[in-house]
Amino acid sequence: MTLAAPPPARKPSSPEPPEAARLTAALLGWYDRHRRVLPWRAPTGVTADPYAVWLSEIMLQQTTVKAVVPYFQAFTTAFPTVRDLAAADLDAVLRLWAGLGYYARARNLHACAKCVVDRHGGVFPTTVDALRALPGIGDYTANAIAAIAFDVPVVPIDGNVERVLTRLHALEEELPGAKPRLRALADTLEPADRAGDLAQALMDLGATICTPKSPACVLCPWAEPCAARRRGDAETFPRKASKKEGRLRRGAAFVAVRPDGAVLVRTRPEKGLLGGMTEVPTTEWTTTFAERSARDHAPALGVARKDWRRVPGVVTHVFTHFPLELLVFVAQLAAGVDAPAGSRWVARGDVAGEALPNVMRKVLEHAGIDTKPGAPSMKRAAPNQPRPSSRISKPKRSPR
DNA sequence: CAGCCGTGGCC
DNA sequence: TGGCCAAGGCT
């Protein structure tokens, strides 16, 4: 991780360095001046901690640096080593992950920690293939960890690298079909000397200069060789096949509250949407939801159909592949009502500590229940529990 | 291999 | 405001 050495003096007859070597050198020189300081990133000249690299890479999958930072701090505080993480309960991991999304990542994170301890003696393997074999680590992450933590001379390809390289070469081929060609282009770079720095330099370039919308080409170390900049349409790369949008699904959520403030919840199935996370009982979420019969699906608590009071307005939420609209019904229960099979009561002060996905935070807030940590409970919630974006629809009034 | 998986921020 | 996007992996 030394600063780039000045180019060796060459005799007049020496050939120019190959194009790839010049590209790599220009990028690394820029990185040495403009690298971002990030919690998981070692100072210049210091080897990064593989545990920190792995944890950050998993969190950063399809997730912004800004969103990740507080979660990374919370995890390294709660689990300073991979052994601590492996020894933790999955539920504790999910609670700490709540709000970050893509919850299969948290389950795989926990499984991966166990594998590292059980199969590798608590030490991360150093080869791409061995890393690739671990849960939650795919092609990109295996190459990224190998390069960043162990300086294996490989170039990981993520969304940033795709964008940077398709622009550099003005590659017209659409993604994802163009992936093999991108791999070939990435392999023309020269990671041999500083693989970790090169990988992070590509990502920093993509995140700060070669951005999706308004790339700052004037500041770019690759401005001169960039084919897309020369054409003047860098922001139109990469080319992508259009994806179809999901249809609106609707449903109803049921918030049952005891006199002491306890709320009825259940745990979602391990796999699939919001797997393993906490929710209030709901109907199925369908494109053909019938509001009239919604109350028929309320949990069996011995309350009259009419005692499920509809909270005006709706909760809206957009998942990756479909938008969701939930009606919210609230019922005030008598003390001592048993929770139906498969569900449980959660004390008012413990709601914030549950593994609540944001859509459920919205539902509870819509029903007037505080999901923020710190209320009348001794129990600690995730220290970084983000608020649900309070974009709950106002009650709809029919125009007159 | 294309569909499934969250969430927050941006313009 | 809503459509798009972010350091992808799994099936």
Automatic annotation (TrEMBL):
Cofactor binding mode and count: Binds 1 [4Fe-4S] cluster.
Cofactor requirement: [4Fe-4S] cluster
EC numbers on record: 3.2.2.31
GO MF annotations in UniProt: purine-specific mismatch base pair DNA N-glycosylase activity
Domain of life of the organism encoding this protein: Bacteria
Residue ranges of every copy of the HhH-GPD domain listed in the record: 59-208
The reaction(s) this protein catalyses: Hydrolyzes free adenine bases from 7,8-dihydro-8-oxoguanine:adenine mismatched double-stranded DNA, leaving an apurinic site
Region ranges (Disordered): 368-400
InterPro entries for the chain: A/G_AdeGlyc_MutY (IPR005760), DNA_glycosylase (IPR011257), Endonuclease-III-like_CS2 (IPR004036), Endouclease-III_FeS-bd_BS (IPR004035), HhH-GPD_domain (IPR003265), HhH_base_excis_C (IPR023170), HhH_motif (IPR000445), MIG/MutY (IPR044298)
Enzyme class, broadest EC rank: hydrolase
Family listed: Belongs to the Nth/MutY family.
Name the record gives this protein: Adenine DNA glycosylase
Organism: Rhodoplanes azumiensis
Species classification: Bacteria, Pseudomonadati, Pseudomonadota, Alphaproteobacteria, Hyphomicrobiales
